Protein backbone atom coordinates (compact mmCIF):
# COMPACT_ATOMS: atom_id res chain seq x y z
CA UNK A 1 0.00 0.00 0.00
CA UNK A 2 2.73 2.47 0.95
CA UNK A 3 4.84 1.47 -2.05
CA UNK A 4 1.93 2.08 -4.39
CA UNK A 5 1.23 5.46 -2.79
CA UNK A 6 4.86 6.49 -3.12
CA UNK A 7 5.04 5.36 -6.73
CA UNK A 8 2.16 7.69 -7.63
CA UNK A 9 4.46 10.61 -6.94
CA UNK A 10 7.25 9.40 -9.27
CA UNK A 11 7.50 10.54 -12.88
CA UNK A 12 6.52 7.99 -15.50
CA UNK A 13 7.97 7.42 -18.96
CA UNK A 14 6.18 5.58 -21.75
CA UNK A 15 7.05 4.84 -25.37
CA UNK A 16 4.87 4.03 -28.33
CA UNK A 17 5.32 3.67 -32.04
CA UNK A 18 3.66 3.00 -35.38
CA UNK A 19 4.88 1.80 -38.77
CA UNK A 20 2.79 1.57 -41.88
CA UNK A 21 2.96 1.78 -45.69
CA UNK A 22 1.19 4.55 -47.58
CA UNK A 23 -0.51 3.60 -50.80
CA UNK A 24 -1.23 5.91 -53.67
CA UNK A 25 -3.52 4.45 -56.31
CA UNK A 26 -3.20 0.94 -54.85
CA UNK A 27 0.60 0.86 -55.06
CA UNK A 28 2.69 1.14 -51.92
CA UNK A 29 4.94 4.12 -52.24
CA UNK A 30 6.88 4.49 -49.04
CA UNK A 31 6.77 3.59 -45.34
CA UNK A 32 5.44 5.83 -42.61
CA UNK A 33 6.53 5.58 -39.05
CA UNK A 34 5.97 7.37 -35.79
CA UNK A 35 8.05 7.04 -32.65
CA UNK A 36 6.62 8.71 -29.61
CA UNK A 37 7.81 9.07 -26.01
CA UNK A 38 5.85 10.58 -23.13
CA UNK A 39 7.26 11.79 -19.85
CA UNK A 40 4.66 12.48 -17.18
CA UNK A 41 5.69 14.42 -14.06
CA UNK A 42 2.90 14.63 -11.48
CA UNK A 43 3.46 18.20 -10.30
CA UNK A 44 -0.15 19.11 -9.64
CA UNK A 45 -1.28 15.74 -8.25
CA UNK A 46 0.49 16.18 -4.91
CA UNK A 47 -2.45 18.00 -3.30
CA UNK A 48 -4.84 15.26 -4.42
CA UNK A 49 -2.52 12.55 -3.12
CA UNK A 50 -2.16 14.30 0.23
CA UNK A 51 -5.91 14.73 0.43
CA UNK A 52 -6.42 11.03 -0.30
CA UNK A 53 -3.92 10.17 2.44
CA UNK A 54 -5.66 12.45 4.95
CA UNK A 55 -9.09 11.06 4.01
CA UNK A 56 -7.84 7.51 4.47
CA UNK A 57 -6.36 8.44 7.87
CA UNK A 58 -9.66 10.06 8.89
CA UNK A 59 -11.53 6.88 7.91
CA UNK A 60 -9.06 4.79 9.91
CA UNK A 61 -9.48 7.07 12.94
CA UNK A 62 -13.28 6.81 12.66
CA UNK A 63 -13.13 3.01 12.52
CA UNK A 64 -10.79 2.94 15.53
CA UNK A 65 -13.17 5.22 17.44
CA UNK A 66 -16.07 2.90 16.60
CA UNK A 67 -14.01 -0.07 17.79
CA UNK A 68 -13.19 1.68 21.07
CA UNK A 69 -16.87 2.58 21.51
CA UNK A 70 -17.88 -1.02 20.87
CA UNK A 71 -15.33 -2.26 23.39
CA UNK A 72 -16.73 0.17 25.96
CA UNK A 73 -20.29 -0.99 25.32
CA UNK A 74 -19.29 -4.64 25.63
CA UNK A 75 -17.44 -3.92 28.87
CA UNK A 76 -20.49 -2.09 30.23
CA UNK A 77 -22.81 -4.95 29.24
CA UNK A 78 -20.57 -7.56 30.87
CA UNK A 79 -20.26 -5.51 34.08
CA UNK A 80 -24.01 -4.95 34.19
CA UNK A 81 -24.66 -8.66 33.61
CA UNK A 82 -22.22 -9.58 36.39
CA UNK A 83 -24.03 -7.25 38.80
CA UNK A 84 -27.36 -8.77 37.77
CA UNK A 85 -26.03 -12.29 38.40
CA UNK A 86 -24.79 -11.28 41.85
CA UNK A 87 -28.09 -9.58 42.75
CA UNK A 88 -30.25 -12.47 41.58
CA UNK A 89 -28.01 -14.97 43.39
CA UNK A 90 -28.70 -13.07 46.60
CA UNK A 91 -32.43 -13.13 45.77
CA UNK A 92 -32.22 -16.92 45.43
CA UNK A 93 -30.53 -17.14 48.84
CA UNK A 94 -33.24 -14.99 50.42
CA UNK A 95 -35.98 -17.04 48.75
CA UNK A 96 -34.46 -20.30 50.02
CA UNK A 97 -34.23 -18.85 53.50
CA UNK A 98 -37.90 -17.79 53.29
CA UNK A 99 -38.87 -21.32 52.24
CA UNK A 100 -36.98 -22.76 55.21
CA UNK A 101 -38.66 -20.32 57.60
CA UNK A 102 -42.10 -21.00 56.13
CA UNK A 103 -41.47 -24.76 56.40
CA UNK A 104 -40.51 -24.40 60.07
CA UNK A 105 -43.53 -22.19 60.72
CA UNK A 106 -45.81 -24.77 59.07
CA UNK A 107 -44.26 -27.55 61.13
CA UNK A 108 -44.75 -25.52 64.32
CA UNK A 109 -48.35 -24.73 63.40
CA UNK A 110 -49.01 -28.40 62.54
CA UNK A 111 -47.68 -29.37 65.98
CA UNK A 112 -49.97 -26.79 67.65
CA UNK A 113 -53.03 -28.04 65.74
CA UNK A 114 -52.11 -31.64 66.53
CA UNK A 115 -51.78 -30.77 70.20
CA UNK A 116 -55.17 -29.03 70.11
CA UNK A 117 -53.75 -25.65 71.09
CA UNK A 118 -54.76 -23.85 67.87
CA UNK A 119 -57.44 -24.13 65.20
CA UNK A 120 -57.04 -24.74 61.45
CA UNK A 121 -56.98 -21.09 60.28
CA UNK A 122 -53.32 -20.44 61.26
CA UNK A 123 -52.43 -23.83 59.71
CA UNK A 124 -54.02 -22.82 56.39
CA UNK A 125 -52.26 -19.44 56.59
CA UNK A 126 -48.91 -21.18 57.18
CA UNK A 127 -49.55 -23.47 54.21
CA UNK A 128 -50.35 -20.44 52.01
CA UNK A 129 -47.18 -18.71 53.23
CA UNK A 130 -45.12 -21.78 52.34
CA UNK A 131 -46.72 -21.96 48.88
CA UNK A 132 -45.98 -18.26 48.30
CA UNK A 133 -42.36 -18.75 49.47
CA UNK A 134 -41.96 -21.71 47.08
CA UNK A 135 -43.39 -19.63 44.25
CA UNK A 136 -41.00 -16.78 45.05
CA UNK A 137 -38.10 -19.24 45.10
CA UNK A 138 -39.03 -20.54 41.65
CA UNK A 139 -39.33 -16.97 40.33
CA UNK A 140 -35.95 -16.00 41.80
CA UNK A 141 -34.33 -19.09 40.25
CA UNK A 142 -35.85 -18.11 36.90
CA UNK A 143 -34.46 -14.57 37.22
CA UNK A 144 -31.07 -15.99 38.24
CA UNK A 145 -30.94 -18.24 35.17
CA UNK A 146 -31.97 -15.33 32.93
CA UNK A 147 -29.19 -13.18 34.36
CA UNK A 148 -26.64 -15.98 33.79
CA UNK A 149 -27.86 -16.25 30.20
CA UNK A 150 -27.51 -12.48 29.77
CA UNK A 151 -23.95 -12.71 31.11
CA UNK A 152 -23.11 -15.53 28.69
CA UNK A 153 -24.50 -13.46 25.84
CA UNK A 154 -22.61 -10.31 26.86
CA UNK A 155 -19.39 -12.29 27.24
CA UNK A 156 -19.81 -13.86 23.79
CA UNK A 157 -20.09 -17.40 25.11
CA UNK A 158 -23.63 -17.86 23.85
CA UNK A 159 -22.81 -17.03 20.24
CA UNK A 160 -19.79 -19.34 20.13
CA UNK A 161 -21.30 -22.32 21.94
CA UNK A 162 -25.02 -22.17 21.16
CA UNK A 163 -24.80 -25.36 19.09
CA UNK A 164 -23.70 -27.26 22.18
CA UNK A 165 -26.73 -25.90 24.05
CA UNK A 166 -29.06 -26.89 21.22
CA UNK A 167 -27.49 -30.32 20.79
CA UNK A 168 -26.24 -29.75 17.24
What does this entry look like structurally?
- By secondary structure, the chain is of the alpha+beta class.
- The protein has a domain at 78-166.
- 73% of the residues lie in helices and 16% in strands.
- Helix 2 packs antiparallel against helix 3 (120-155).
- The longest helix is centred in the middle third of the chain and has 70 residues, at 46-115.
- It is rod-shaped.
- The relative contact order is 0.08.
- The model has no long low-confidence stretch (mean pLDDT 85).
Give the gist of this structure.
This protein has 168 residues and is α+β, with helices and mostly antiparallel strands. The chain has helices at 2-7, 46-115, 120-155, 157-166; strands at 12-24, 27-40.
Amino acid sequence: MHTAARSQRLPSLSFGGYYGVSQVGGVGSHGNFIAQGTLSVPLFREAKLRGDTEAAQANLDAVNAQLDDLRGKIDQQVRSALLDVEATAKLVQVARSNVELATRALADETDRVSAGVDDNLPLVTAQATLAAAESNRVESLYQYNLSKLALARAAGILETQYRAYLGR
